[in-house]
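Following up on my earlier thread - several people asked me to post the actual chain instead of describing it. Fair enough. Here it is, all 164 residues.
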Amino acid sequence: MSTHQHVLPHVELFTDGACSGNPGPGGWAFILRHPPTNKELERTGGHPRTTNNRMELMSVIEGLQSLDKPTRVDLYSDSQYVINGLKEWMDQWKRRGWRTANKKPVLNLELWQRLDDLRQTHQIACHWVRGHNNHPENERCDRLAVKAIDEHRHDPLPAADKDS
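Reply from S.P.:
Thanks for posting it. Predicted structure:
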């Protein structure tokens, strides 16, 4: 074992998801900040028919996927669903074959599994922030996610989503 541990680069990831109706058209946004340089990457996306929880998860997944090497990430989200899932529920779900405590299949399974893959690469520290509480980056992500709803409201649905 080496005497010095390789120090991972560090970023802050601010995320938010929004939905107009639940389900309905949705948007996600993230701000990725490199604290030493204050450089930022900002991205948004959306889906014409989705749920708020799916958009919250997508904002985190998209932010983590934008990193090109293993990184120490301080994740800031106003979604207790995302924070509790990462900090508490996910390991238990995996042990139970991706089942909840009452033996039901985990909702949004493919997104949780993508997030699980990403947390194998990155060291993620989760921080819950109260939404709509003057947290500047959370407020900015919220505005971006809401704007993304309008941009994706009329996207054609993929064939697989047309029946659901």
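Helices lie at 52-65, 80-95, 109-121, 136-152. That should answer part of your original question.
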